[in-house]
Amino acid sequence: MSFDAAYAALKAQHLEDRVRRFPGSSATVALAAQELGTAEGAIAKTMALLGPDGPILVLAAGDRKIDGGSFKRTFHFKPKFVPGTDVEALVGHAPGGVCPFGRRDGIPVWLDRSLLSHAEVWPACGDDASGVRLTPEELYRAAGAVGWCEVTKSALAKAA
């Protein structure tokens, strides 16, 4: 799976006109924001975490990071990221292009409420040189999300 799978999933929902290909890399939040000329918070980063029943995807504003306590209270397991070497096999997209579109079957998607502070967000589209412009509500529908959650904190927050 890759860009083609993500694009096909978006096309099936008539959202293919929102997809953008980039001349440079968008593999990180900073690179994607640079390619788009937007704030890092408007990048919807997709985090692949290992749950007791397999991977889950959590999308959050790019200027946020997982808050371990909030995550554990919400999902009832400690947050542990899928190792980079296993992401493609488990999720269907390689690191830098992980997104909820065209993912492997059975992987639940959750959206962090941090996305709601942006009129539009840009998740990846299956590879490290693409993105798709969606409102948070469109992202929820297009991703087939299970629900909204609050499991992040500012990436600038320091440990106490």
From TrEMBL:
InterPro entries: YbaK/aa-tRNA-synt-asso_dom_sf, YbaK/aa-tRNA-synth-assoc-dom
Protein source organism: Sutterella wadsworthensis HGA0223
CDD domains: ProX_deacylase
Stretches assigned to the YbaK/aminoacyl-tRNA synthetase-associated domain: 27-140
Pfam family membership, one: tRNA_edit
GO MF assignments: aminoacyl-tRNA deacylase activity
Annotated protein name in UniProt: YbaK/aminoacyl-tRNA synthetase-associated domain-containing protein
UniProt-listed PANTHER family: CYTOPLASMIC PROTEIN
